[in-house]
Prior knowledge:
single chain, 25 strands, five-stranded parallel sheet, alpha/beta, 9 helices
Amino acid sequence: MGAGIAGWSVAEALRRRDPERPILLVSACKGYVYPKPAISLALSQGKKAEDLISMDAEAKALELGIDVRTETRIMRVDTNKKRLVTVKGGIEYDKLILAMGAHQKELPITGDAASNILSVNDLQTYKKLCEKLENEIKHITILGAGLIGCEFADDITKAGYKVTVIDPQQQPLSALLPEAMSNELVQKLSNNGVEWKFGATLDSLNNDVDGAYVARLSDDSILKTDLVLSAAGLVANTKLATKMGLKTDNGICVNDDMQTSNPDIYAIGDCASLEGEIFAFIEPIKRQAETISADITGIHEKFMPLPPLVKVKTPSLPLSICRPAGANDIEWSTVSEQTKGGYFELRDGENMIGFALSGDLASGAGSIYKQLSH
């Protein structure tokens, strides 16, 4: 269930291990195959949504030798009968894999234009953004200075728009970066025209007489803008899993075989929670796909919850970070700060447990990560 990176990855992994097993991928959308991370680089490259598509669902299914049903919304799952109930009829299953993704966090924003705030999290919502930009748009406000917010801020300014980023923290990527790198990122994006509003949130958004919006912030400042994007963080899609009686916390609970509380049902990617941690990046999703395909074919290859290597797509300041969960109390130590980039480490005694690279040094993250993960 699901045709994002997680769904297609597990279909690929299972087909490699078992050339004959019947596989059906079911998607509520058209199931296009595209590199989702490329969305936050697409505007400055002049790319429309259709330019990002590498293959349609039918062609990908034919390549893998699987079946696919697109635009098929699942209403409920009967776990006793092992049957999906969809708008297009019933589907029997033996093993079920939930690759249901996540949605943008809902923010408590009032005003008659609050419903016009756009969240860009997939190809369809990126298409909506492109359509809105066909109008007279000059200024865009981004809610959130995390990964997606910073990537879009860099991309949108390079596409020629003015950008204001609003975040309740005092620096961008506050949960990931050393303060020195955060400050450098602020400076680099400011040089491109990004305005930062830290220590504030958007309280209300109302229509103005000229077709723009009036935004009132929590610090009582007023901002006039033409478009508001929410990048305030993702929430796992768990509603259907809860109805199925599966155990959930901040995601659908899984063990190290990626099995849910029902051993015939697995979860992967943005919707899956292993001991309260969600691994939403491509590298761990690929490993989760291998774990699921192995388990289904009778092999135990447990998923290792390694801290992911995060590559932030901000070309103005390339960043690569590996910061383990639960390391918030450990101070970053400076290894090197040069004009070509910075190198910081997190250390637990003599052991390096995390690192952050910026600038030209960011491209060398793979070799450091390989040492860390082994």
